[in-house]
Specification:
Layout lengths: L2 H5 L14 H19 L4 H13 L10 H10 L5 H8 L3 H11 L17
Helix pairs in contact: 5-6
Length: 121
């Protein structure tokens, strides 16, 4: 017996009834919303309509094709600059930049700069 039964006069809920689970709490909230809707006569579908309107207004992201100049810049900056800096120069996300580099066969891992010893300075 859950909270719903307790509200309807079926006794006090106990942890053995499974009332402590999140699913039972959610079910209880749904029941309360239904009871509110029944007593007031209001439709609670307003929230659902707003959610659908927000979902519809979201536009698909614009995908720009990679130009030859973009690929040239990627190749020139690879292994010399961090991936985040290359992505910013290309005005693309770091993930898109890494994907393109992998597709073209370029490594974006940085090469270490050679240290100069004290004798050479």
């Amino acid at each position: 017996m859950g909270l719903r039964a307790a509200r309807l006069g079926g006794g006090e809920p106990t942890p053995a009834d499974g009332v402590t689970t999140k699913a039972a709490a959610r079910e209880d909230d749904d029941f309360a919303d239904f009871a509110l809707q029944e007593s007031t006569g209001e439709a609670l579908s307003v929230d659902r309509d707003m959610a659908k309107a927000v979902a519809r207004s979201r536009e698909a992201p614009v995908r720009r094709p990679w130009s030859k100049d973009d690929v040239r810049l990627l190749k020139r900056m690879a292994r010399k600059e961090p991936a985040a800096k290359i992505a910013k120069a290309l005005k693309r996300t770091e993930g898109a930049t890494r994907q393109k580099a992998t597709g073209v066969g370029i490594s974006l891992s940085m090469t270490r700069k050679k240290r100069t010893s004290a004798k050479e300075r």
